[in-house]
Amino acid sequence: MDNATGSRVAAAQATASWPPCPDGPAGTGRMPVELGGETADALLACAQRLHVSPYSVVAAAYLLMVGRSTGTRTPEIGLRLAGGNRRVAVRVELAGSLSFDQVAGEAEGSIKELTEGGVAAVPAMELTDTPAGSVALTLTVAVPLTEEWDEDGGRVDATLEYDTARLHAGYARLLAERLVTILRQAPRADTLDDIDLLGDRERAALVDTFNRTAVPFTGLADPVHVIIAARARRYAERVAVADGSRTLTYRELDELAGRLAARLAAAGAGPESRIGVRMEHGVALVVALLAVLKAGAAYVPLDPRWPELRASQLVTEAGCDLVLGPAGGAGSGLPHVGVDLDGLAAGPSRSVERAVSPAHLAYVMYTSGSTGRPKGVMISHGALANYVLWSASRYMRHPADEPAAPGGSVVHSSIAFDLTVTSLLTPLVAGHAVRLVDHADPRALPRALNAHPDLELIKLTPSHLRILNREPLAVPAGPRTFVVGGEALTSDLIAPLSTARVFNEYGPTETVVGCCVHEASAREPGAVPIGRPIANTRVYVLDGRMRPCGVGIPGELHVAGAGLARGYAAAPAETAVRFVPDPFSPEPGARMYRTGDLACHVPGGGLRFLGRIDDQVKVRGTRVDPEEIRHVVLDHPSVRDAVVVPLPSEEDVRVVVFAIPGSGAAAEPSAADVLSFVARRLPEAMVPEAVTWVAEFPLTANGKIDTRALGEPAPETVLSNRPADGEPADRAESRMMEIFEQLLQRTGFGTHADFFDLGGHSMLAVRLMARIHKEFGVSLPLGILFDDDARASTVARLAAAVRGGAERREDDLVRLRSGSGRTPLYLVHPAGGEVSHYRALAAELAEGRAVHAFQAPALDLLPEQTVPALAEEYYRHLPEGSPSIVGGWSFGGAVAYELAGLLLEHGRHVDRVVVLDGHLRVPEVPENDSLGQFADEIRRMFDIPDRLDLADLAGVTMEQGVERVFAAARASGRLPETVSHAYLRALFARYRAHVRALAAYRPAPRELAVELVQPRDADHAARKRALRDWQELTGGRVRAHLVDGDHYSMLAGPQVARVAATLDAVLP
């Protein structure tokens, strides 16, 4: 054990005590201590050699046993003569180099103090684990006089008494055995470190019995993709994966993955080759991952939200041959394969599934590294299969052979985080469904759980759980299983999950997600244990000499067995340091992984996590090494030296930087510039919260940087002085500015610039709210971005809202402006679900009218988006008691009419319906025609002057068509960089669903007053037909109003003012 490791263990030991014994009965237990025969002879021999009383040898052994067992470096025990009233304290610092002889000498001096030098006549002695206060452990020992020793056979009478409310009986027995073990070794030990505390029974229990985990899983020799293919043959038409816009059965998933694998194989993919996967959450992502495995290659997961520099670095370091991404995306300078599911389905049926061995590589996942570079953890097929088969058997409650497997899992975390392996692959090997949601939105998980009450498996971190506990959750259809990992778990977090099974899963990335598990209970106080090793896994808690640590004694956790990684990619030296020979395995060449984590065995079985030996921390479940952050900060030209300090907060860890400016830097270097520099190179969780400039670092007495003396980064020191108007005024504004810069991929704007004016859109707005929640721990409603109160979508206004600690649940209803005195107006989105079209109209309407808009829920939350279904959904969000006006543009007019009908049916007052160029009877539109209409929507939405050149759409798949729209819009130069292909694909899926819903809508006649606003430049015949349809439906209760513009321009530019004036004139 090196010095740093030893100091961390010492720190853990300094605060340790007897292992807790929860709910133990009050009383005193007694246990004889076997000090006869060989042990008694060793005791006497040691006493004679040292010229001390045998009592001093026993006292020294007792002192060492108490110190080591409680994890106390400087134990202090009580010593009293039997029948006496006076007790003296014996206190010794148990340095490893100290000899047992020296400890016995200290005890001898204390005994002489009690007996005034007459040690030989002592009949018995009492030793306690503390010299004063509440005693938990008492050893009473009677040593015969030396001349009686041979006559009595060397028998020493000793009894251990213990407080049953504080110590388990089994643990007290271990303590008695440890005392005997120490006495037997004492005569031969040069130093205290030479004395092994464990007896044969305890050693066997911890090394052998605890690690009897062999389970011969059926199919363990098969790689995961082969197991999933077998499920596809058995459950061909069962749903396998779904996202907000698409669902695949097991048959479809297997066929598409096989076809993509054939393309990859033709491009040279095979065993040991590596393919990057950089895609948003969606069914195509699952197809891509399985295709890589079927091709025999290993996948390298790359978060699409990582900075480009980070992704490019890892692609190069991993040695990727290809990068899989969305159709038409960029491939980080390497041969790129776009994943077009429709193209695969329509293409050749040739499929590939190459044979691989359990030793072949399955994936390479990168974690933070102390060398300043990320480490690529190489996981084999055998290791992956062991974990996934075990987790399926442990976590999935329903057998896969049911007619329709219920539940399944929700994938809500990044694929670059190994936590996702559980929720993604475990259900698939069991024949269950996987549902994918946006991993950048922290509220996507609670929304998914409410929308799909049958979801069964939820894998998450404690940070996720904190967010989940704030949200009201619907009653699930059946028992749920929550698997919590990535960070230390406390019982208070699981208290709200009283009806669910909750597992605390521990495991570094180097051990395939999880290697220990404990089924948790809210009744367990404090930190939840990490439990026992999973199937075919061995774990050891070892001291600095690689000896097993006894129950309750801190040591470094080591992991061995089937789940071990092969090592680190292209890092043999680092691999040799962390993956070392397993001295406890009979298998030749067996290895174990040094986790760098402190742990201890607890009485009754199981393990408890105690923290890190090194400086690594977890930020929102992601392993972060401050040294890697420091290396990137030092690359900035303004920084001469830096120290990265993790600061624990109430719910997570904040990472801050203290930096010394370089000699060539400006007098007042920009902290924001350094943070922006780091954000372009590291994942979000690794970007520091602040940079504080200092002249020099304070040092401790031994010359090390005193991080405690650095303190908290004060807001006024984050930036060099108070900035001018339009620049960040405090840390909150600085951090908000960084979020804007990272999401919008632009700089050079002030704190009063509007999010939407800078290129933001509604899908990006959801990510903005998620980032604000992650950075500040505050939930802001999405509607605040559309609020008319002093430009609420600016850096300054959002920072102010964060300071106010706004905390409201987001729903479908967005407030566009506040007001009173006029009847509120509730607008329904057009096809596609966007509400930003209404911002200009809301701003132009007369003061005093509150305006709200309904944004469409994601397809995965409300798959059936018919007109009646949407109306039902929005009815739930309308406030009761007050009159209201409902309306909508285009498709929104039909939903508004249906919503008004629901209000009437429930006896509520609805003043009238506002229809902005809405039509009722529309034919079913062929998919290619809807693509053209969608292209027009995109052109108008982003103010693209010319029609988009889509060429001939005949025979083009939906995926290819959306790609053409995206490419044409990008070529126009008007499409913001923040608008991704994935965004347009999701938008089109919802647009197409709404177009179909309108074609299928059959409205019922109702006595409703309708204000029909129509554009003058629209087709005359179509305009007349729409007016006639609305008149027939309402019995003639329609007033028609003509305004300038066409279907799109009526809500933009100067025309929207005319629409607002028209509505102001007719609405109450």
Automatic annotation (TrEMBL):
GO molecular function: phosphopantetheine binding
InterPro entries registered for this protein in UniProt: AA_adenyl_dom, AB_hydrolase_fold, ACP-like_sf, AMP-bd_C, AMP-bd_C_sf, AMP-binding_CS, AMP-dep_synth/lig_dom, PP-bd_ACP
All residue ranges annotated as the Carrier domain in the record: 727-806
Database matches in Pfam families: AMP-binding, AMP-binding_C, PP-binding, Thioesterase
A Gene Ontology biological process term: amino acid activation for nonribosomal peptide biosynthetic process
A cellular component annotation (GO) from this entry: cytoplasm
Protein name: Non-ribosomal peptide synthetase
UniProt-annotated stretches for the region Disordered: 1-31
